[in-house]
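Whiteboard transcription, Tuesday session. T.W. wrote the structure tokens on the left side:
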């Protein structure tokens, strides 16, 4: 079965940590797609959606931290964009718990379009700014070594 969202370098923003986290988000979105396609049940889909929501919150916290330390001028608008998505996901999760909503392919399409647009537009603008003010686009060699040995660590903190 084809993936819902196939990662390519075109989605890279140029900050290694952010790009690696975006790949995890894409993987979780594809796992949710696979679960729906395979009719694995609403409990499995809700679990994966919960993992996606939790990881998204962590990812947004990392991005916003980098924005604050680099004095990103569009921080408030970008943060509001994050909060709007989290609010929508929280409302959806509440409806899923009460049976008022189901996880559908339309939801997956919405999440894919939102993520694609957000990465290519808002995150790319931030990354360009971050690098222009001296932010490090890549991990130091010792960090790269550690991350490659314990790749699971940064996925779940």
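and on the right, the sequence the group agreed on:
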């Amino acid at each position: 079965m084809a993936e819902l969202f196939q990662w390519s370098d075109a989605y890279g923003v140029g900050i290694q940590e952010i790009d690696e986290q975006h790949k995890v988000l894409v993987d979780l979105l594809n796992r949710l797609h696979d679960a729906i396609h395979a009719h694995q049940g609403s409990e499995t889909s809700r679990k994966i959606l919960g993992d996606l929501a939790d990881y998204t919150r962590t990812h947004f916290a990392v991005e916003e931290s980098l924005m604050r330390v680099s004095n990103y001028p569009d921080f408030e608008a970008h943060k509001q964009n994050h909060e709007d998505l989290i609010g929508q996901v929280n409302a959806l999760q509440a409806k899923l718990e009460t049976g008022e909503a189901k996880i559908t392919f339309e939801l997956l399409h919405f999440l894919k379009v939102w993520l694609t647009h957000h990465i290519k537009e808002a995150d790319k603008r931030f990354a360009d700014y971050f690098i222009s003010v001296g932010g490090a686009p890549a991990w130091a060699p010792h960090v790269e070594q550690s991350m490659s040995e314990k790749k699971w660590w940064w996925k779940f903190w």
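Someone added at the bottom: Confidence is low (pLDDT under 50) at residues 153-157.
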